[in-house]
Design brief:
This protein is an alpha+beta fold and about 300 residues long. The protein contains eight helices and 15 strands. The strands form three sheets. It has a seven-stranded mixed beta sheet. Strands 8-9-10-11-12 form a five-stranded antiparallel beta sheet. A hairpin with a 2-residue loop joins strand 9 and strand 10. The protein is elongated, with a radius of gyration of 26 Å. The two termini are about 50 Å apart.
Length: about 300
């Protein structure tokens, strides 16, 4: 049975059916073609039912070699252009006798856009990504691969040491961080190659495995590093707590979003009926966006974020 895909000629942007978000002007495709960014003399706007016109605009045109070019353009986001290109490409490539390539075009491609590009593989068509700043110049975009990182529990970070003395010292330092977390209402979590102490929704200190032994680092209110030896661990933890008290007593912190989130996440979790709650659970890029994870009474996931203004 031949499958038919919902596709229709452009009849003007309406923000999507039932939506109020303005659609992208399809005349952008004429500018793309006129700038010579793709080897097609013209691009006819085409709409797909499941590609919102506020996400990107899609055009199809003939190339000089007789094949077709499918172009998805977003004036604001490489990711939007890429999503549109993949969705449109999968539908057009399924049509009998399709021959050609699919292009995702955007004025700029951020690191997150390139990482998404690097994840794509096994598509049934050739996919090309182009950055066109001001639609004046063409620059091929290289996918950016992101090394897989697998955070380990804080207790295992010190397992990297060959020396039993270093492992034991790391365990003592980790116990000290957990004491500070309990004392000041924080949490110790896994970070990138380190155990992190989080207070008031912000990573304020870390303990990692250095080349010559454990390394304790204060991140707030100023960055200070101590390379630990057995005799100076207590002093380093005392100095760390001294810095943390300055951070916690800062009126801008207490009265800002950090203070609100630190004081209110438990009430928010209770209001959501969440259980098995983990505060500030995720390390890494933009790690402080989430204030807690948990499950509801029906065993569904609950994600909480508390702000004065979202």
């Amino acid at each position: 049975m031949r499958r038919r895909f919902g596709r229709r000629r452009w009849r003007g942007g309406n923000g999507g059916e039932g939506g109020s978000r303005p659609g992208i002007d399809p005349t952008w495709l004429a500018r793309v073609a006129a700038a010579g960014l793709v080897d097609a003399a013209s691009l006819e706007p085409v709409r797909f039912d499941d590609i919102p016109d506020w996400l990107c605009v899609v055009g199809v045109g003939p190339a000089a070699d007789g094949t077709r070019r499918v172009v998805a353009f977003s004036p604001a986001s490489g990711t939007a252009a890429l999503l549109g290109a993949v969705a449109a490409g999968l539908r057009v490539a399924a049509e009998p006798g399709f021959s050609g390539s699919v292009l995702a075009v955007a004025p700029s491609w951020r690191g997150a856009d390139r990482r998404l590009l690097g994840l794509l593989a096994g598509l049934p068509f050739e996919l090309v990504a182009l950055a066109a700043p001001g639609l004046a110049e063409e620059r091929a975009v290289e996918p950016e691969t992101q090394a897989a990182t697998f955070p380990v529990p804080p207790d295992l970070v010190g397992a990297a040491f060959e020396s039993s003395a270093h492992r034991a010292l790391f365990e003592r330092g980790l116990t000290g961080l957990r004491g500070l977390a309990a004392k000041h209402g924080g949490v110790v979590r896994s970070g990138e190659g380190a155990a992190e102490l989080v207070l008031l929704s912000r990573a304020v200190a870390s303990l990692r495995a250095g080349l010559d032994g454990p390394v304790l680092e204060a991140l707030e209110p100023s960055r200070t590093t101590w390379r630990l030896a057995g005799e100076d661990l207590v002093e380093a933890l005392d100095r760390l707590e001294g810095q943390l008290r300055k951070y916690l007593s800062d009126r801008r912190i207490r009265d800002g979003d950090e203070g609100l989130r630190g004081a209110g996440w438990e009430a928010l979790a209770d209001a959501a009926g969440a259980r098995d709650v983990r505060p500030w659970p995720a390390g890494g890029e933009e790690c402080e966006a989430i204030d807690f994870l948990g499950v509801d009474p029906a065993a569904g996931p609950v994600v909480g974020a508390l702000r004065r203004r979202l």
